[in-house]
Amino acid sequence: MQYKVTYQDMSKIKSATFEAKDIQELKSLPKIPKNIINIKLLEKKTRENIGLKLNNKRKVYELFYSLNLMLNSNITLNESIELLLETKQENIIKEILLNIQNSIQTSQAISVSLQKYENYLGETPILFLSLGLKNGNIKQSISSLIEILEEDINSTENLKNTIRYPIILLVSLFISVSMIFIYVIPNFEFIFSFIKDDIPFATRSLLIVKNIIDNYFVAIIFIFTLTVTALYKSYFMYKLFFDKALILHIPILSKVLRDYFFYKLFLSISIIVKSKYQFQTAIENSKNMINNLYIQNIINTILSNIKNGTSIAKSFEDTKLFDSFTIKLLRMSEVTNDYSSILDDITQFHKKRFKKSLNTFSSLIEPIIIFIIALIVLWLVLAIMLPMWELSSSFG
User: Fold this and answer.
1) Is the pTM of this model over 0.90?
2) Domain residue spans in the chain?
3) Can you tell me the distance from the alpha carbon of 117 to that of 92, in angstroms, rounded to the nearest whole number?
4) Cα(131)–Cα(126) distance, rounded to whole angstroms?
5) Are 115 and 41 in contact (CB under 8 A)?
6) In whole angstroms, what is the distance from residue 365 CA to residue 218 CA?
7) Neighbour-count burial for 286-323, b at 16+ CB within 10 Å, e otherwise
8) Burial of 230 (0-12, 13-18, 19+ CB in 10 A)
9) What does each of the 396 residues of the chain score in pLDDT, given as a tens digit?
10) How many Å apart are CA 388 and CA 369, to the nearest integer?
11) Pick from 392, 134, 159: nearest CA to 258
């Protein structure tokens, strides 16, 4: 089998392909790199596999929600899968259920059998299935998974709803301005020619912009496409640099993303700890749920410090990324040895912070965009109407 290994080399993200019988053999290869970020099984591209690139969170949630209901009715996992297979399901859902069933029967690692469906399922369901089957608490693991998936859907929808309106405004502005340049300005150009040297500054600047677009339209599109492509490729080559900038250096947005990732992190840690796992195990299994390499590296540093004997609270504090209230609660959990309830408090704290920062972002970004739109509209109105007023006053 072929595996694609993504790893960090200095500040760059690199990948390499290796041949191995399974994950265990792959990890034992002498040439396997250090600082591995991700391992993926390479499959031949078929129509089915191409369809797996769409991660439909709601369908995944509905699948495991149904499974959870059956498990809570004291039906075994295998019987629950059989019942779900008897109902009408999409082909991909049937394949996933059959793979889970086959893993149970053959004792194959669920992470291996479901690896090709990772783009559809996401990492979280595979992780909780693995933990549940490994430790014999599949009922509790599925119940915890449902809680995480539900919160993830809600928080993602909140984030999308917040940025949807500004995006609609910007798209509407682009379409409106394009229509003005294509249909309105050409009809007024002959009027502007009567004024000649007395053309107002707003009109002169508008005509300059129009001439640039007319003469260099193809070059502008080419440069724009090239810039977007370069940024896209640079992001994957220097993912750590870009992810760090996203978390630390972008006004307003960085705080929203930070609160969003921390909420997801502590929600996952809290739920895994409730499932009777150690705090260290919970952190280790939660880091891959955060799609930010900088935060993943921070979590790796925290894990390394804990393994070397540093306390949990001190390990988090040394990163200088987490707020003082979170550190205080972590210290309290160490003193009282009550991780479960205190992690709940930390999760709720970051959930409130995420909602607050999201509202702040929304309340700031929308007026800024509306103000920019108003300036552009004012510029266009003045550019078109000022020459008309000057002509009418000269004829009067």
Assistant:
1) no
2) 1-42, 51-121, 137-396
3) 9
4) 9
5) yes
6) 31
7) bbbbbebbbbbbbbeebeebbeeeeebbebbbeeebbe
8) exposed
9) 667 777 767 656 667 787 776 666 777 777 777 777 666 666 544 333 433 333 578 888 889 999 999 998 888 888 999 999 888 888 888 989 998 988 888 888 888 888 888 888 888 888 888 888 887 888 888 888 898 888 888 888 887 888 888 888 888 888 888 888 888 888 877 777 766 667 788 888 888 888 898 889 899 999 999 999 999 899 888 988 999 999 999 988 899 999 989 998 998 898 888 877 788 888 888 887 788 999 999 999 999 999 899 999 999 999 999 999 999 999 999 999 888 899 999 999 999 999 899 889 888 888 888 898 899 889 988 888 888 777 766 655
10) 29
11) 159
**In the structure encoding, which two tokens stand for residue 204, read together?**
């002169």
